[in-house]
Amino acid sequence: MSEVRTACPYCGVGCGVAGRAGPGRVLDVKGDADHPANSGRLCSKGSALGSTVGLEGRLLLPEAFGQPVGWDAVIALVADRFSRAIAEHGPDSVAFYVSGQLLTEDYYAANKLMKGFIGSGNIDTNSRLCMASAVVAHKQAFGADLVPGCYEDLDLADLVVFSGHNAAWTHPVLFRRMEKARSHGQQWIVIDPRRTDTAEGCDLFLPIAPQTDVRLWNGLLAWLDAHGAVDHDFVRDHVAGFDETLASLARDDQSLEAVARDCGLEPSSVEAFYVAFAASTRTVSLFSMGSNQSAQGVAKGLAVINAHLATGKIGKPGAAPFSITGQPNAMGGRESGGMASTLAAHMDFSEAERDRVRRFWRAPALTEKPGLKAVDMFEAVHDGRIKALWVMATNPAVSMPRASRVREALAACPFVVVSDCMAQTDTLDFAHVKLPALAWGEKEGTVTNSERCISRQRALFAAAGEARADWRIVADVARAMGHGEAFAWTTPAQVFAEHAALTAFENDGARFLDLSGLSGMDEAAYADFAPVQWPVKTQGANTARLFTDGRFQTPDGRARMVAVAAKGPARAVSVEWPLSLNSGRVRDHWHTMTRTGLAPELCRHAPEPMVEVHPVDAARAGLTEGELAVVETTAGRAVVTARISERQRPGSLFLPMHWTDAFAPSGRCNPLVEADVDPTSGQPEFKHTPARVSPYGEAWRGFFVAREAWTAPEGLDLIWRRTPYDGCQVHEFAGLGGAAEREAVVEALMRRAEGEVLTMDDPARGALRRAVITEGRAERVLAIVEMGGLPARGWIADRFLDDALELGDRIALLAGRSVDTVDVGQMVCACLKVGTKTIEAAIGAGARHLDAVGAVTGAGTNCGSCRPEIARLLAAMPKEALNAA
Predict the structure, then answer these.
(1) By the 8 A CB rule, do 364 and 328 touch?
(2) Other C-beta atoms within 10 Å of 554: how many?
(3) Is 812 helix (H, G, I), strand (E, B) or coil?
(4) How do residues 759-815 score in pLDDT, each as one tens digit?
(5) What single DSSP character describes residue 23?
(6) What are phi and psi for residue 281, nearest 5 degrees?
(7) Do 516 and 507 contact (CB within 8 A), yes or no?
(8) Is the pTM of this model over 0.90?
(9) Spatial contact of 84 and 48, defined as CB atoms under 8 Å apart
(10) How many CA atoms within 13 Å lie on the side-chain side of 739?
(11) What is the rounded distance in angstroms from the CA atom of residue 786 to the CA atom of residue 237?
(12) CA separation for the pair 414, 388 (Å, rounded)
């Protein structure tokens, strides 16, 4: 099959992908060398896309109330139930909860139906959880949700400030791009409570106390003013609110000592940051989840923007406050109106804007007001105000704060529809109707990345089963509800053309979002669509950065500096809850693992849910490295593996958010997160919830390897998790009970085992091992221990790939390794499957820098997201070992 150019479905970098599909849905992927976002580079997740496109676990047929049903019947059912709810309870009794995984065409269709023809603002997106605060900050400062910078600025900047942005893990392709710039003298400053992989290689690390960002950035603004570093000419000509903002700073002591004390930093470090910011005319401040996911998220964004406006570091090459989006099409959703707080095409709810959109859509029922934001939406489901809910391409039962309460809401809702490509997610468990949607590799449409670059996603395969495009499902329901003329599209090109036309409609240049150059695109032009940054007023035009002329989308064309006050966290730590819980991502997983969980290579670097704890806090709590820990907040509880690390700030915990019921039901993070939100943006606080930690106190531990996924035996209270490997699934478990509990586990897992059963027990250690071999192949391996360690899983898992086991390997299944097994250690490089011990051996043999390690092992030579970890291994190697080499 010929090569198809498409776009990656993961983060907001928006990388181009070149894919070549083969029989049996085999897919070879590489980076698109011609795409401006990545120039051919892919991260570990993008490189593993070929492992995620199979049909295993796919939702292939529509279902209603547990039964397969045809599309005509299910569309009629959804339309009828939503129409009845609207007729009986009003338009605000229904809601859509959508996703940055949708394409712009899908977003546009869903928004048009809800706001234009149902007549409610109740459509919100999971982008509310990641980028809503940046949206509001942009609107207050610039007059609209406008990202001023572009990726070229990351090449040109002399200084890059990472404010709550672990780019090495969340946007690794951009991180590699900045690594190249850094080799030519670019300076990095990282502001983060954790010493992340991004912080490992920076010039200055500020391990800021939780929720003190505004204090730090306000202090910068005061310092800039006091030291003559304000660009008064730029302020005079292009900025409003400067004097009022400066005057507001007098409420706090802005001395270096006071700022440093409040932020938990050294005064010398604060001063070094301020001096560097003032000295560099080309400065990019990247702010992301660490800033946005906060009850003070808007204030944090504005504080960053204020510093750039005061110094004129905006709209110029290498200078911008730059909000980096999390999802592949969070921007497309923001442009098309996918958030409850906007109408469409960067228009809000003024009478003039409502009249404009009403006439364009010919929608007499157009909503008069914004709808419910995500947290409020699920509260409305919980208390019964929302009678029918449609969830599209997202998993709120896992991703929302207070996720257990969200599950209660879904369970109580009279009618829940879920569109998804997968057959099992935690949210689908609550669905009355399941609608099979196209997956990545089958979709046709557009996405917009963090630098406003619109790219095409293109199909590599035919639709799986009866799956349909999300925009088409929405249009089918809209037609069944009686709105056929307005939803008469037959192709995604027609949807996109209408979206582009709306951005241009009665746009006299006052609205920067203008796709008039794309509004007349026909099917052929849409098929050949090349990446382009908006505004696009002329076909083929490209706009790299905004505000180059100092004009902003405000009535007077001036940017607004907005005074923001430093505040304490919404919930303070206490004697009972002494620690601050910070949630986030791991390097190789994406959101709730519905896609990355299909790729075994992405599951090896961080194979289990864990809590990262500083040694001081671990000692105080009695935690031991590698043992299970209980993390509790007032909202919930999780049991995860303890990882003790000085990279964690004392007094803080870090818990990743990815694991679900399918992978680790006791390790889910977001049931612990309180639902405190920013009062303006509605974005939840994911970076600070008061918490405590204690040992779980497991009496025994074990693992079970099988070809298929298992769940914990019923009736047993076990901590259980699953990790996919090539050819098998590795299940880890632990319990508090005694011998009877262990025997019950053995009975449940070995029941009806067919084949040769190998046994090895050690009663003195409470240890037992079982292996089942059927027709020469490994089928099951079970190991349990009360005292001591368990064998490594990797070698055992690899034996499930063997068609016929050698005699020595059959016996070695119980030992966990053969006599000639080479232990590669913990996985570091997911792309090329290189472990710690392999890298340490290369270092010991004389590979003394990153490129040398890469030359010997391959690690770090593909996507590069593991390079900071390799650098740590280099730094940790004893000098005498290096000298000996």
Answers:
(1) no
(2) 17
(3) helix
(4) 999 888 889 999 999 999 999 999 999 988 888 888 899 999 999 998 888 888 988
(5) G
(6) -75, -25
(7) yes
(8) yes
(9) no
(10) 7
(11) 73
(12) 6
